Amino acid sequence: MGRVMAIDYGRKRTGLAVSDTMQIIANGLTTVPSGSAIDYLKEYASREKVDVFVVGQPKQMNNEPSENMRYVEIFVNGLRKMIPDIPVEYYDERFTSVMAHRAMIDGGLKRKRRQDKALADEISATIILQGYLEKKRFTL
Fold it and tell me: What is the pTM of this model?
């Protein structure tokens, strides 16, 4: 089995998380500038077997796509074009930023570290991935 990689795409930064090879545990990987995210993913996929990319799908409370969805779709189209052998799935990312901030507080991070937006993006990607893995496990 290969890894599952979650992507929390933002216009400036993209948070990345990856599963273990058994696809049980989600781990934060890094945050990269969004303009170089596809290159990073391509290079990573050349070193590690990736079964699927899971991209956070920005939605509003009424389940409509948020304003950022158009940028996410452009990114996903580019990802599918540059790495056509790895499927891309969406996963609802509502509340992941709030959950990431809460996790940083609960984890005892100092205020200065909690203000690190790159860390928040990486944690958000990890939350997206963990949710995806759990959903997949319980719907088999």
Answer: 0.84
In this structure, the number of other CB atoms found within 10 A of the CB of residue 88 comes to 16
What is the reported pLDDT for 136?
83
DSSP assignment, residue 11? S
Name the range with the highest mean pLDDT among 43-47, 61-65, 101-105, 123-127.
43-47
Two structure tokens written together for 77: 């189209």
Strand partners, 14: 9, 32
Pick from 117, 136, 132: nearest CA to 18: 132
Residue 138 Cα distances to 42, 51, 110, 133, angstroms:
30, 19, 36, 9
Q: Cα–Cα distance between 26 and 20 in angstroms, integer?
A: 7
| 34: phi then psi, degrees, rounded to nearest 5 | -60, -30
